[in-house]
Amino acid sequence: MPVTEKFAHGGWRPAADRFIKIMDDPFYRTLIDLQDLLTVCTTEFWHRRTVKALHLPITTGSVSSPMGLGSDSVPVEVDLFGQHTYLADSMQFMLEYGCRFNPSGAWYLMPSFRGEDADETHLNQFFHSEAEITGGLDDVIEVVDDYLRTLARAVLDRCASDVGSHAGGTDHIAHMAGLSAFPRMTFDEAVRHLGPDPLAVEESGGWRTLTRHGERRLMTEVSPVLWVTHFDHLSVPFYQAYGDAGRRSSLSADLLFGIGEVVGAGERHATGAEVRAALSHHNVPEPAYQWYVDMKDVRPMRTSGFGLGVERWLLWVLNRFDIREMQLAPRLNGVAIAP
């Protein structure tokens, strides 16, 4: 499917009059329609499953996503009235806490902050649709499949014409909506499929991870919508449960479509003892996560969760290739932008 011309709608680059120019741009009107659709459909989806919404702060002393050795994320440190803290990269730990109040689970839509430079696939500030449920990796994968099919069908039902005019069609959305279950392969299977391609898999001693090139090959050669599961444990954050007795693999999964990874999912350690062992394995100091360990000591629980990058989903829907176009009000680290 052809992609639309780069920067055809004024692009993402900040300018003093950008906010004026895009007010009559049909692309950004459609973008707002899709943001609204996702918000409404997400709320309805979790309400049907009795999963409760949490209202959470945007600061945290316990960062989550950037903690894996294979992560490409950097936490954003801030000094808040003399208190060292971080802007939230994810509030997944709080969603796990929410499961202790509502066993059906907890969810939110809220902003996330990252310290790395923005590029075609990364934003400094973006929205996360995240949830945590009771159960294991297979349970959360099944829920994510249902969630994304629900969103795809809503796009087709409510704004297919507008989306199609910007995306060059809606076949990619119809394909996802029609899948009964999204295809899956393990990370080891993916590595074997990719073969001796030095650009497809990054290797660093005790762990491996897929590159963007490797993800694209899998989406082209295996399936345009594909789960890759059981990544090397040292390439993912410490909080993902182990996938084997030797502690080599993890009960984690990435859902690839569009530009690559759009959803990250995983099963968590159930007990405080398991978290302590994983922290030691990953050489992560325990004090910053003491409350998290204490919670699992007092209330052990098997949960799993996921995070959907909202702008990455929007990028796929609209068949674009620069995620910086997916923001009504761009934000770049170190740059003052109005509004």
State the CATH superfamily name: Bira Bifunctional Protein, Domain 2
Number of distinct beta strands: 13
Radius of gyration over C-alpha positions, nearest whole angstrom: 20 Å
The biggest sheet, with number of strands, parallel, antiparallel or mixed sense and barrel status, is: 8 strands, mixed
Q: Distance between termini?
A: 35 Å
Describe what is shown at a glance.
It contains ten helices and 13 strands.
Describe this structure in words.
- With 339 residues, this protein is α+β, with helices and mostly antiparallel strands.
- The protein has one domain (18-326): 2-Layer Sandwich (BirA Bifunctional Protein, domain 2).
- The chain is 35% helix and 20% strand.
- The chain has 10 helices and 13 strands.
- Strands 1-5-6-13-12-11-10-7 form an 8-stranded mixed β-sheet. Strands 2-4-3 form a 3-stranded antiparallel β-sheet, with no helix packed on it.
- A hairpin with a 2-residue loop joins β3 and β4 (83-87).
- α4 packs antiparallel against α5 (171-177) and α8 (272-281) packs antiparallel against α9 (290-298).
- The radius of gyration is 20 Å and the shape is globular.
List the helices and strands and how they pair.
Blueprint lengths: L17 H4 L4 H23 L3 E2 L5 E2 L15 E5 L2 E5 L4 H8 L6 E8 L11 E10 L2 H31 L3 H7 L6 E3 H8 L6 E4 L2 E4 L1 H10 L4 E4 L22 E6 L2 E8 L4 H10 L8 H9 L4 E7 H8 L22
Helix pairs in contact: 2-4, 4-5, 8-9
